[in-house]
Specification:
The complex is a heterodimer of chains A (112) and B (113). In chain A, a hairpin with a 6-residue loop joins strand 5 and strand 6. In chain A, 36% of the residues are buried. With 112 residues, chain A is mainly beta. Chain A contains no helices and eleven strands. With 113 residues, chain B is mainly beta. The relative contact order of chain B is 0.34. The chains are: A mainly beta (112), B mainly beta (113). Chains A and B meet through strand 4, strand 5 and strand 10 of A and strand 4, strand 5, strand 9 and strand 10 of B.
């Protein structure tokens, strides 16, 4: 089983719908991240969290919100999805004293 | 702010050597990472440089020059499975306590027979 698990792996939805992407990890890491990836743009940071009580905005947080329900769980929500949020979304974790990221398998979201 | 540049695409021949360059500008450098990403898959860690010089790991090596804001990833004895995107990422000193990385757009490498 993967150490960082994302659900759903694929989702097609319509404009205006609320969508939640979930991430859970068994690595015991304190830091968790949500990135989105678009062709030719690399990975862009949406939100990150140091622990359950800590949430920080990344480069492109507008239109997104997150919840850190437990050390092992970090969810990303799109309150009202729009087509330009169509992308591949990655959850990642890291240990506090290193920068190496461990990625989930990705969630491909299509907003029609 | 930060700026990271790397070539968009490269092509090389199986068995050859290829060098993928990355230049960066940050307000406070604190480490550079290379990740490999196969199409449709998650990125996986390749290397980490924080001091100047060459880090070698099997067929892959990564070099860093902090004064020049420059790094490269060297792939030797190329194999078809090395066809992937290679992502350069920089950790900024101001963000070092967070482990937050800023990524370049990635270099797509195609290995041909």
């Amino acid at each position: 089983d993967a150490d960082v698990t994302q659900t759903p792996r694929n989702r097609i939805t319509k404009t205006g719908k609320r969508i939640m992407l979930e991430c859970s990890q068994t690595k015991g890491h304190d830091r968790m991240y949500w990135y989105r990836q678009d062709p030719g743009l690399g990975l862009q940071l949406i939100y990150y969290s140091f622990d359950v009580k800590d949430i920080n905005k990344g480069e492109i947080s507008d239109g997104y919100s997150v919840s850190r329900q437990a050390q092992a769980k970090f969810s990303l929500s799109l309150e009202s999805a729009i087509p330009n949020q169509t992308a591949l979304y990655f959850c990642a974790t890291s240990v506090s004293n290193t920068g190496e990221l461990f990625f989930g398998e990705g969630s491909r979201l299509t907003v029609l | 702010g930060q700026n990271i540049d790397q070539p968009t695409e490269m092509t090389a021949t199986e068995g050859a050597i290829v060098q993928i360059n990355c230049t960066y500008q940050t307000s406070g450098f604190n480490g550079l990472f290379w990740y490999q990403q196969h199409a449709g898959e998650a990125p996986t860690f390749l290397s980490y440089n924080v001091l100047d010089g060459l880090e070698e790991k099997g067929r892959f090596s990564s070099f860093l020059s902090r004064s020049k804001g420059y790094s490269y990833l060297l792939l030797k004895e190329l194999q078809m499975k090395d066809s992937a995107s290679y992502l350069c990422a920089v950790r900024d000193y101001g963000s070092s306590n967070t482990g937050k990385l800023i990524f370049g757009q990635g270099t797509t490498l195609q290995v041909k027979p």
